[in-house]
Design goal:
By secondary structure, the chain is α+β, with helices and mostly antiparallel strands. It has two domains: 106 residues, Immunoglobulins (Immunoglobulin-like); 108 residues, Sandwich (Immunoglobulin-like). It contains three helices and 17 strands. The longest helix has 49 residues. The structure holds 2-acetamido-2-deoxy-beta-D-glucopyranose (NAG) (2 copies). One 2-acetamido-2-deoxy-beta-D-glucopyranose binds next to strand 15.
Length: 253
């Protein structure tokens, strides 16, 4: 995909990165938060970053290509499949944001999620969204082919305290207009185990080992210092001795 980007876009990204080195990154926020939408929905992308006085323009990139809009909010309405892809933004007082991915799908139903990857303990919000909010009844949410939740009238499905076992392939189905049985495409959701706390609560041996290494280094260092000093003194002494002998010798002759 990178080789498809025009060189100018790459240049832009690189120079933007360089210019803004050291500044906090801007953040692209979706409103509403769903990362998967249907055609004809409307989505607003907001760029959160700081604006130096006198420059309130925002740079937007869609799949690495600059967008003409310079407003802090970029409104996609009505959404089309071509609007899918990665969005980044930058303001005068912030570095280029990380990309935010948006998927625009065609069809009657889409299973909406706010992200694809969750950490254990987070809440997974799912929404079975119909094209132009057409009435939808008898809605089921399925995980790996099994019905996980059924609602007679359409409702969001949220899974609090997600665990690894809630990873999987999800879709929803229901009756459009009360009679037409439709299914959404599937979406793969990943729930990751928590890795950060295991580092924070690392066993004390880690700290003990660190202290031991520091003590050993100090002892070795101090020992080296004194032995070098001693050697230096004795060599200076022998050098003086030598000089003394030398200056003495000619007289002796
Ligand atoms: C204003 O900020 C934008 C980044 O959003 C930057 O590309 C542009 O060069 C800045 N303009 C000036 C005059 O500093
Ligand atoms: C829709 O069709 C599936 C099979 O394709 C079926 O299992 C399900 O019960 C139907 N849904 C409703 C609400 O009738």
């Amino acid at each position: 995909m990178w080789q498809l980007l025009p060189p100018t876009a790459l240049l832009l990204v690189v120079s933007a990165d360089l210019q803004a080195a050291g500044l906090p990154k801007a953040v692209v926020v979706l409103d509403p938060q769903w990362v998967r939408v249907l055609e004809d929905d409307s989505v607003t992308l907001k760029c959160q970053g700081s604006y130096p006085s006198g420059n309130n323009s925002t740079m937007w990139l869609h799949n690495g290509n600059p967008i003409s809009s310079q407003a802090s909010s970029y409104i996609i309405k009505p959404a089309k499949v071509e609007n899918s892809g990665e969005y980044r933004c930058q303001t005068g007082g912030s570095a280029l944001s990380d990309p935010v991915k948006l998927e625009v799908h065609q069809g009657w139903l889409v299973l909406q999620t706010r992200q694809w990857v969750f950490q254990e303990g987070e809440t997974i919000w799912l929404r079975c969204h119909s094209w132009k909010n057409t009435s939808l009844l008898k809605v089921s949410y399925l995980q790996n082919g099994q019905v996980r939740r059924y609602f007679h009238s359409n409702s969001d499905f949220h899974i609090p305290n997600a665990t690894y076992s809630q990873s999987g392939s999800y879709f929803c189905r229901g009756l459009i207009g009360g009679s037409k049985n439709e299914s959404s495409k599937t979406v793969d959701i990943i729930v990751q185990g928590l890795t950060i706390p295991s580092i924070h609560s690392s066993p004390p041996w880690y700290q003990i080992a660190f202290c031991l290494v520091m003590v050993v280094l100090f002892v070795v260092d101090t020992g080296l210092y004194f032995s070098v000093q001693r050697n230096l003194r004795s060599s200076v002494a022998s050098w003086k001795d030598h000089k003394f002998k030398w200056s003495k010798d000619p007289q002796g002759k």
